[in-house]
Amino acid sequence: MTETNGDELHASHDVNGHEHADTDEEVADQQNDSNNDVQEEILPPKPKLQPIIAPDMFPPPIVICENPENYPESYRTNTKKEELILTFIENFRRQYHYIYRDRKPLFLNPLNECGLPKFVCTTVQPTLLSFSKLFQWNDAAEFVADHLNYELLEPPHELPKTLWSPEKVLYDHRGNCFDYANLLCSFLIGAGYDAFVVSGYATREVCFMDTTRLPNPYIKKREEKHIERIKPPHKKYTVKPPKDLTSKYDAYMHQRHLDKIQADKNRRQEEENKRIAEIEKPLPDPLYGIRVHAWVLVLPGKREVPEAFFIEPTTGYGKATNDVEYLGIESVWNHQNYWVNMQDCSNGCESLQFDLNDQARWEFMFTYSTSLRGAVTATLNTIGNSAILDEEEDKGTAETTQKDIEVPPSWVRHLDLTPAEFQNRYPHSRKTYFYKKTRVEKYAPYFMKDGIVLKISEFADYDFKELIYVTQKYEHRHDKLEERGHDIRTNTVCEIYLPGRPDQLKEHTYGFGPEFERTMIYYDKARLDGLAKRHETMLELTDYFVNRDDFLEYRKALFEPRPKKFGPAEKDNQRPIISITERYGRNVELNANDDIRELVFAIKDDKFVITYHRDDIHITPSTRTYIKPVNWNDKTITIKWSDDLLLETYQADEDFKQMSKRDLYYKMLKLMEQEEEVTRRVQKAEDEIRDLQNRRQQEELSNELEYSVYDTERNKKSREYRDLLDKRDKEEKRKREIKDVDYLAPFLAAIGKPSRINAHTAQTLRTSAQHDFKERSIRKANLMQARYENEVQELITKQQWYQKHQIGMTKEDELEYQRVCQDAQFRLHILEERLDRHKKLTAEKYLQLESKLNEDPRLKEPYIIPEEKK
Amino acid sequence: MARLYDAIEPEVVSMDMLQNAVESLRADGENQVVPKEDKLDYSAVNSLRLDFRSILRMENLWLFSNLTKLQMDNNIIERIEGLDTLQKLTWLDLSFNNITNIEGLDTLTELTDLSLYNNRITNIENMDTLKKLNVFSIGNNQVDDENSIRYLRRFDNLRTVCLRGNPFASKPDYYTFTIAHLPQIHFLDYKLIDEAPREEALKKYEIQIQQLITTEDQDREKDKKSDDKKKQHQLHKEAFVENMDQNQLFTAMFKDDSEGQKLLLVPGADELVAQIEEKFVAIVHTMFEFGLKEKETRDKEIDDFWICVNEAKDENTRRAAVIVDEFKEYRTQLFAKEDLEQQGVSSAVAAEYDDALTNLRNKLMALEIALVDQLEETIQTFERNLGEMVSNFTESMRANFGLLRELQAFFNESIINLCVAAVERYMKGELDDEFPDETRDLFADKDTILNACQTSDEIHRSKLDQREDEMFSRISNWLTTMVDNIHEDEEYNRNRKRIIEISRLIDYLRADIEDM
């Protein structure tokens, strides 16, 4: 592979990159009309059959990075240990080939990106990244599969000549199967799994990462509830069932007929299955069995893994060790050792044993590992940090150096990912997968403007032409839309919302076209009216309620068909209502016969029909029908009771109380009020539906995304706040630093800030500091003393002056004098106090200084003065 | 306060007065829009106002069984009475009367508001059953007693109390005493009680209240114990083995037996009695245990029976209801078509409807008959099984009673032997000083002592017989009553009710086409 070759290959696989512009447009379309997102032309790359090329005709080129000087030294040179290990390996290789002449070469020391041969074990760099998502093997495998673009091996039946460091693979977003496996293995060992890279052979589909024959992993689980009615145990006094008088012959004939139909159906199903299997069978592969592939093996023991399994790094799926897709294993390795498979792989991996300590089946490279394998990885269980790992290795080698050469530490730098890189997990933040009759597009959160993160398109055919169903998942949307399913065939849309919308909508199913029918499911607990579901068709509107205090279960309104001539302009008008039915649950506090079950407001017929609840002992519910009085609409006339108003009454039991005329009259007045109320409710419900439609349209247009307050990267307000806090923190810190004045600084400065001093200088420094402190204290005390004396002097002069002029002074002057005296007294008092305090504190302060000087590291051995930090 | 009786003629609670009182509660002008009922429906009245009427006696109120609110203030009532049937009453106002004692409120368990303001009551008492009492006004009375206040401690739901105008309320520490002793009330004399004075008051009376609480706790404990005991006894009674858990039967045998007690003074009788008692009590105790166990099995059997019967009934009712609902659906559809043509019911439809009705009737009846058959069979089985259980019980008990009788015979024999020996020794003059005077006569000669033994034995035997008879007659009574009730309710009454309901339904539905 030359440089250009590599680019081409990269380009041909990076379908997404080219499609980028198209899909942006497509998203815009989608916002306007979710119908039109059907015609997309992203098709899976057709796996070309690779021609078989003799290796010596075109020697496989070696990919070397453009500027190796950008890489750290361990990438560019081999240490002595590494050189040693390479010689050791060469020795191993020669012996191996001498003994097993017909075995294929092993993958031992490929070139790295700087063109240097490196031992594969040292290329594994166990790392645990600081994302909890990568702690489980399936999440980690999915991340690796999502993060990289796959490159095919060239030629497919030979081991690659190079193996890049996982670091480069991670940053370049591309790699072949060995790169995939190596990276994943680094993550898994870091997370504490007992994971190994496997070099072996697999089918063409696996090698090409051709998933178009696999079932869609995102397929919706269509649950079918099987509620089996448990027959109550036969009790002693269970009554005998009445005699069964139906003909057994008839039943037998009927059963025979059913059986025949079932058999027919089964046969047809079988034929259909066969036909499908025929279509899905892969084409014959001329290179079957010699296509080189690499994947990951996880052994049991660590992290509660019950048994050994494979992980296909290109797709991220876990596979059983007897999977038919894997055809053979040459060797496995981790960061510590290398094992060569000695078992027969003619039956694929089915019968392989994975006890690596079994020397008959696995030829190891380093003997020490056999005893050490368990011990080292055990510590990884909890931390997986390589610092600890290194320590462990040191310990291990200390015991075994005399026996053998150990594997040097990995030459690869520690893997690292920023949170942003982790979140944009796909190359270019998006990736497309193809499965059987399904296309899956994944996007990083916040990457698309409308918040889409996953789009699953299901097709009816294998060529991705006939779209059936599109599922789109969203995240961080302002309108809380979580998922939208569009059934292309019936042209209906089902949207699922997260809790938190102002109208508490949970699910919204609607169709297009004239026979519109929509169902809305609400978070009923969050709604004050307990509305759980609303169903609307052309002529019906039904609201279902849950947990209401008045036990209302549903309210159903029947409408008259709208006359066609009104035209669309009148569409906002309320539809005329034929009748409204309310159904209530049983209120156990009332008698069943007084508890209304169903209330029909037959608005068109001017009737009320009440059906009460049925008792446990009765077979019929009581009913009562009222007719609205003729003049019910006229508010000015008081309605009088007449016996005609009660059309009919049926009481299930003659013992039931008859209602008095007065009660009946009031009941009817109440019913009339209720009718108004209920009509208003129905109209409100209709308005709400229309509101919802409008609001949804607006929300679709605005499609803002929400940022969590903890997401300081994206949430502007949060960031500002955070910055403010940081700033304040820094300021505080600075202030604190200023307070901590270095008392030795002036003396050190006096002797020219030396970096080292001797004991004598230290002693001088100490005494001068003490001396300085004493002097300062005395000066301060003297100053205060002087002021005090000054003040006293002044006061005395004032007093003398007063005594002289006492006679013939005005009242004001006298007052003035007294005020001045008081002030002076006060000042004297303060000065006295301060002096006192100073005297007391000086002794304490002196002691403090002394202890500080005693503890000061600069005045002790080895007398080093640290550089001042600026 | 004092009224002049002579000046006012006491009124009697009459039919007219009640009628007026009920009607005056209605809205104005209502009588014009709704025709007056011919008869007053007493049970439909919820609240009644009989104030300012100079009523002397509370009477003729028993018909208002659903009354929740009764105002009889400003009358001249002297005794609270006639309220026993008004069990739903929650609000009772008897203020401004001449009542001297609180009484006659025992059945008003739902009462929450009670006003006895301005009466002549001296003691707060006789209100133990008013557990839900929330507001209690006893102002302007003659209460002058700390115990009356303490009495109010038992009402956990009490929140408002009015006590002012009583002699007690004029005492200096009235307020602190009351709020300390009634921690559950929030308002005293219609004023909210603040936290601070309450805490102070509680501190002041801390010791007294602590003592009070201790005695209350003890009382409660005692009540609980006696309750438990009663329940236990009831349970034993239902198992027909009451008073058999200890030596009650044995002591009862000797209780009415004055001769026998004297005989027990014979030397060696003590040991004998102790020995016999032990055996006796052991047997009685096995009977007791057996009785309890039998009751358990019987109860389980009865439960099983009822569960199954109710299941069968519910299932049957449900199926019938489904049939009825289906028919109603069919009926609406049938007539909906007709109505469109605005011609009334056509004869073809009427005929079809008639057929459908007959069909419905047949179906419902068939279901009912099937149920009757099922129940009959089940009840018979149940009756047989229960009868067997009872006879098992009886037989086993009888055998045990036999054992008791044998024991008694053995006892008698031994005592006779002892007595004879004693008489002989007495004759010889060896026992002179061991007997009190009156018993000495008994041992004077052999015949007397044998007679005494005979009598004693008879008394003992009759006691045992009595207990046995009682047990057997009660259990057989219990069995017949229960079985009879089951036959009556489940077979006869239920069936009758259902048949009536079906025919009512059919008649009602047939009315649709009968107009033609």
What is the multimeric organization of the chains shown? heterodimer
Uncertain regions spanning at least 5 consecutive residues of chain B: none
So how many helices of chain B? 12
Order of helices and strands of chain B: HHEEEEEHEHEEHHHHHHHH
Mean pLDDT of chain B: 85
Mean pLDDT of chain A: 78
* Beta fraction of chain B: under 5%
Name the helicity range of chain B: 55-70%
Q: Which two chains share the most extensive interface?
A: A-B, 29 and 44 residues
Domains of chain A (count): 5
Q: What is the fold's blueprint, element by element?
A:
The complex is a heterodimer of chains A (870) and B (516).
Chain A: H1 3-13, H2 15-32, H3 73-76, H4 80-99, H5 120-123, H6 137-147, E1 149-150, H7 166-172, E2 174-175, H8 177-190, E3 194-202, H9 204-207, H10 248-280, E4 292-299, E5 309-312, E6 317-319, E7 326-333, E8 338-341, E9 362-364, H11 368-380, H12 386-400, H13 419-423, E10 430-435, E11 438-443, E12 452-459, E13 467-474, E14 481-487, E15 492-497, E16 505-511, E17 518-522, E18 531-536, E19 540-545, E20 552-559, E21 577-584, E22 596-602, E23 607-612, E24 623-627, E25 646-650, H14 661-702, H15 716-739, H16 745-750, H17 759-805, H18 811-855
Parallel strand pairs in A: 1-2
Antiparallel strand pairs in A: 3-4, 3-7, 4-5, 5-6, 7-8, 8-9, 10-11, 11-12, 12-13, 13-14, 14-15, 15-16, 16-17, 17-18, 18-19, 19-20, 20-21, 21-22, 22-23, 23-24, 24-25
Helix pairs in contact in A: 6-8, 7-8, 11-12, 17-18
Chain B: H1 15-24, H2 30-33, E1 47-49, E2 69-71, E3 91-93, E4 113-115, E5 135-137, H3 146-151, E6 160-162, H4 174-181, E7 187-188, E8 191-192, H5 195-204, H6 206-238, H7 248-255, H8 258-263, H9 269-341, H10 347-427, H11 437-442, H12 446-514
Parallel strand pairs in B: 1-2, 2-3, 3-4, 4-5, 5-6, 6-7
Antiparallel strand pairs in B: 7-8
Helix pairs in contact in B: 4-5, 7-12, 9-10, 10-12
